[in-house]
Amino acid sequence: MPAFSLMIQGTTSDAGKSTLVTALCRLFVRRGIQVAPFKPQNMALNSAVTQDGNEIGRAQAVQAYAAGLEPHVDMNPILLKPNTDTGAQVIIQGKAVGNMNAVGYHEYKSIAKIAALDSYHRLAEQYQAVLIEGAGSPAEINLRARDIANMGFAESIDCPVIIIADIDKGGVFAHLVGTLDLLSPSEQDRVIGFVINRFRGDISLLQSGLDWLEERTGKPVLGVLPFLKGFHLESEDAVAKSPIKTDTNAKLNIVIPIMPRTSNHTDWDALRLHPDVQVTLVGANESIPPADLVILPGSKSVQSDLAFLRQEGWEDYLNKHLRYGGKVIGICGGYQMLGEQLLDPLGLENQHANTQSTGFGFIPMETVLKEEKQLKQRHGQLAFSGSSSRSSNNYAKVTGYEIHSGVSSFSANTTINHFALLDNEQNKENGEQEGYISEDGKIIGTYLHGVFDHPEALQALLNWAGVDQAAAFDYDQYRDSEINRLADSTEQNMNIDALIEQCRNFQQ
Q1: Per the residue annotation, which of 175, 321, 404, 449 is the catalytic one?
Q2: Rounded distance, CA 104 to CA 125, Å?
Q3: How many CB atoms lie within 10 A of CB 351?
Q4: Sign of the dihedral through C-alpha 180, 181, 187, 190
Q5: Among 451, 389, 377, 443, which residue's Cα sits nearest to residue 416?
Q6: In whole angstroms, what separates CA 129 from the centre of its chain?
Q7: Relative orientation angle of helices 475-493 and 17-30, to the nearest 10 degrees
Q8: Per the count of CB atoms within 10 A, which of 285, 381, 389, 463 is most buried?
Q9: In the chain, what are the domain boundaries?
Q10: Over the stretch 24-48, which tens digit does the pLDDT of each residue have?
Q11: How high does pLDDT run on average in the chain?
Q12: Which of 83, 73, 153, 80 lies closest to 119 in space, CA to CA?
């Protein structure tokens, strides 16, 4: 067993659970504590691929990075990826076990819990501490039975709990008191305190409320964390359409459609943060502005999202955009949409076998959905003209990861220019050709998520899109500096050493 474990639960979704676990991971590492992040059950379309080819939630990958660890499947043993309004693909310890509706998964929870406990205990044996993130709220009455995401899990492993609430949303005292009141007596006993997140202003004006809260609940306020202006880390929940940065002298305008099942939206974080780029996200029933570049993102339900784009007028827009010199990148599901045909013979996306859709037809390619999902981290170099430095033939390095069920093949007797040349263990000498770039250089298609994260690839792709001498931007360095900024702020506003002692005493 670890020296201690601690679970962070929230009064709502997006209360700050992920960011607090991230901050504590970095702060524990600074103290020489070997710590691992853990989330028993996660529901998100924004996932990450581990080095050994398993799939986990994006937040746990970021938390692992904060802890100085390589992400591992045991850090998030249950991942639910919604593919309809009432159903999701269920992924257990990195591998898909099938699609289930809410009722079916509720019945399956007892099996899923075994996997979650197995993963937790493996981490507990390997590390000195395990920091656990809950999901949503522990006070959802209709979800209390067979709970494995919040208090049900905390009770199973007997760990202390902190409840965090976002004061920026309003109603923070009602959220905290109401959540605590809806817990059972044994669950209330394991709550060691509250954290208030994203506070703006003079904390002295909040003090009377904090005093009342502590007297009303008998629980201490362990910290009031300030609102961090301009703070950004990868999100795994719904796409945040508000701009990350507001002041820009953009050299490149990018438009990205937000579809009902958009996945892996962190693909364009590096672009949204780049000083030379302005990204506009376009949702349903919104007009599509002019752009230099359109990015069609990944999708958990490609055929239905393709129909959505047609309904929203994107097919006509793309034809005009390309006719007048614009450029297009399709990533994963977006890449498949740019092809000629999409076939789902097994009904993997919508439970109806032998469905097919006509793609936009910009790439001479057909995609067939297969049962086995491709899950890989990838490394290599860009392969198209213009991605090499002017003084050498060294092409830009690219890294990324693949998450897809589709297998794409190009039309016979078609000359294909590939987007990248990737390392391949089975063919080390020649590598593996990946993706597509059109003869006129206007269209790129790739299965690589995270393609803009490597600074060399980002620079080369901005150059391809028409930006001369783009500013250098290293997304990994940016993320690390943001984690340190978050950790520094948390250190200043919480007594971390006292918290560690409190956790150790709880489990003695």
Answers
A1: 449
A2: 32
A3: 14
A4: positive
A5: 443
A6: 24
A7: 90
A8: 381
A9: 4-232+480-506, 252-469
A10: 999 999 999 999 999 999 998 889 9
A11: 93
A12: 73
Fold of 252-469: Rossmann fold (3.40.50)
First-to-last CA distance in the chain?
A: 12
The sign of the CA dihedral 281, 286, 290, 296 is: positive
| C-alpha span between 259 and 239 (Å, rounded) | 10
Q: Which residues are 403's β-sheet partners?
A: 375
DSSP code of residue 296: E
Contact 423/378 with Cβ under 8 angstroms? Answer: yes
Phi, psi of 26 (to 5 degrees): -65, -40
Give residue 73's identity as a one-letter amino acid code: V
Which residues make Cβ contacts (< 8 Å) with residue 480, sequence separation at least 6?
A: 65
Mean pLDDT of 77-86: 89
**By C-alpha distance, which of 226, 140, 216 is closest to 173?**
216
User: CA-CA distance, 334 to 52, in Å (whole number)?
Assistant: 25
Evaluated on CA atoms 106, 107, 110, 115, the torsion sign reads: negative
Residues in the chain: 508
Q: Which long-range contacts (CB under 8 A, 24 or more apart) does 386-389 make?
A: 386/441, 386/460, 386/463, 386/464, 387/457, 387/460, 387/461, 387/463, 387/464
- Could you give the CA distance from residue 385 to residue 419 in angstroms, rounded to a whole number? 10
> Any idea what the Cα angle at residue 456 is, between residues 410 and 391, rounded to 5°?
100
CA–CA separation, 328 vs 294, rounded Å? 5
Burial class (CB in 10 A: 0-12, 13-18, 19+), 442: middle
Q: DSSP 3-state assignment of 8?
A: strand
Beta sheet of 161-166, edge-to-edge order = 35-38, 129-133, 4-10, 161-166, 191-199, 221-226
Based on the residue annotation, tell me whether 454 is a catalytic residue of this protein: no
What integer is the mean pLDDT of 41-56? 92
Task: Tell me whether the CATH fold assigned to 4-232+480-506 matches the one assigned to 252-469.
Answer: yes
Report the CATH architecture of 4-232+480-506. 3-Layer(aba) Sandwich (3.40)
For 44, the 3-state DSSP assignment is coil
For residues 333 and 276, what is the distance between their CA atoms, to the nearest angstrom?
27
Q: Is 418 known to be catalytic?
A: no
Q: How many CB atoms lie within 10 A of CB 422?
A: 24
CA 296: distance to chain centroid?
Answer: 17
- Residue 324 in tokens: 């007048």
Task: Out of 332, 404, 454, 503, pick the active-site residue.
Answer: 332
* Beta carbons within 8 Å of 51's beta carbon, 6+ residues apart: 70, 71, 377
Q: Cα(451)–Cα(464) distance, rounded to whole angstroms? A: 14
Which ranges constitute the DSSP H helices of 127-206? 151-157, 172-181, 185-189
Closest CA to 358 of 374, 336, 376: 336
